[in-house]
Protein 1
Amino acid sequence: MMKKSLLWIFIAAFLPIAASAQDNLSGDAVIFGIKVRAGGRYDNVRMCVATPAGEKIGPAMDVSFFTELGLSGNKFLSINVPVMRPILFAAQFDMLQFEPDVTLKFVAKQGDRIDLVAGPSLGVSLHYGPDYLSESDGDLRGPSFFALGPMVGAYFGIDFKRPNETFNFQLGFSPYVTPLFSINDPDSHKGLVVGGSLDALFRFNP
């Protein structure tokens, strides 16, 4: 029952973002694609399923869908919707970790083959699950709680251009910081998440 509830929370949070992106697909400069992220983080609030109980530093991975909307010749608004981690955590660990974000990307043209891309990002982190002192299952799993907080970060990337082609690749780095605050939690969990990821973006221009 809890797994179904977490999946519905994820779907309810996802739909407004997806609808917003869909409304803009008629624009002239629209790119969509898949982002694969791998990195690490310091987290003194949430349980990490990949590390032992009590460990604050661990890996972080996700796969997401994104849409980039052209604002001008050298600016894009990127809307990123994570998919892998929310579904996996809800299905396997009775948890929710959903962190959608938007990034304002500025493109500095370098030539025919590559461009440099950078810009600020802002998102929200939604959590439901135990704290970092908890085991993932069994009698040592702690009580679950809701928490949320803003994600403030940046993006630095290299765009490998393929003129007149429908597909190209972008490699980037995304540092971020997230203060987390629990909601209706008897233990009043709060803390900080600091991390970064290496991002592989597979971009399609229809």
Protein 2
Amino acid sequence: MSITVSIIEDDSNVRTILTDWITRAEGFELVSQYPSADKALSKLPEDKPEVILVDINLCGESGIACVRELKPSLPESQFLMLTVFEDGDHIFDALTAGASGYLLKRTPREELLAAIREVHSGGSPMTSYIARRVVSFFQKQTPSPLSGLEQLTAREKEILGLLAQGFAYKEMADALQISIGTINTHVLRIYQKLHVSSRGEAVAKFVPLRGLPQIKQKKT
């Protein structure tokens, strides 16, 4: 089945390019495109796309605010930021708002399509430069007690560690030899205990932890 995609982008030229890339690619279906946050907020919940590409610098309400408002009504949709902003504030505001990935607009077509597939399968794609910024930020943080972490079971901490490593749900299920349904249940409980609603927020709370299990991906 094709991955359903929506676009929120106010630049008509960029929107046209993205539309062309997605509609011509095998395995993708473009279900809608919107030039502003306002229009997306009123219509996107009806579209229910699996992946949503979002620009940050939209006319009117920002893309980050748009994601924050849409996430509760589209909990199964994955938001992938596609922007020119490379600074830490925008990156972490987007991730904590509910975005699962962050790419720069200069990302080539094939890398963008691969990122859509990755975020759809449970991954957190980021442009390499952005990923380095994230790692650098995390390394500078001072560990401090965080509410909810002490409530996690050993298995939940294990899965949280895998989420932080960027594992897709299927990869976690294979590595731990449990079903994807069980993974979903554990992730839901992690979100509830940490009072978060996205992988980005959960990973942000994971950072101060030490000694979480590290599981290598199986060789294929």
Protein 3
Amino acid sequence: MDQTSWTAQRKLRISLAVLAIVLVVAVIAQFAGYPRRDHPYAGSRAVNSAKEGPQQPAVFGGDSRPSPIETPDATTKVTDAPKGIYKMLSRWCGTILASDLEGQTSLYAPKLSRFFRQTDVSHAAVHRDKARMMQTYPKVTKYEISDVRLENQSGDEAVVSFRKDWDMSGRRRFAGAERQRLKLRRIAGDWKIVSEEETKVYWVKRG
């Protein structure tokens, strides 16, 4: 066998080995079942404020397959939480139930440090995201929170967490339950959301 033929066969064997590795990785990824993620009123096209062009979809924080549902706690009213925070949370839910886009987005600060998986998100980006989601799911039959906990408060800043249950529909149904955390800041006398994230997804169902 001459040198040229031996070199060609060696290159062919290397190419076949690389192809086999790629196929193995693809099979492993397929069976690993990476979850498809999405989220109502949060991030299918959230835009980083530093770059107002098209972005990758923000993600839903949990597996789209139902996970065991924890027994929800009764709504916890933290006595030392400012009444303004409860008023803001009530309006936050109510404006979504009423499909009140302007009322909903008025509860967000001019800039958010975090909006689910996005960082440094502008108010305009949040507005666009909420508008798109309200158009996608115009009928909201449930959007409620329970087990509200004041995790931290210092002056004009506070952190609250709660369980959120939702059920909405458009061309298809989208329902679920998750635990969420909001970071708030008092701006011009009103509590505004400066960070929003999901900390645990209990279940998600698409119809």
Protein 4
Amino acid sequence: MRTLKLFALMLVTVFGLNVAACCGPDKTEIQKTDIITQPTVGKQLEDLNNAYKSGAITQQEYERMKKEIIEKGEK
């Protein structure tokens, strides 16, 4: 009888460890990196045009920034 209880206790312990191992927290570290996306040249020009049309920037600023965006896009 005592052997049966000991066997049952060992069985429960082994089963519990297996469940904890497969369902517990992952031991491997996942490295997170911040992904910074750069808008496309077209999107930048569209946003710039919207800023100009809304009066947020002057025509001179618009022309200067447009030139910069296009030059950066060509690289």
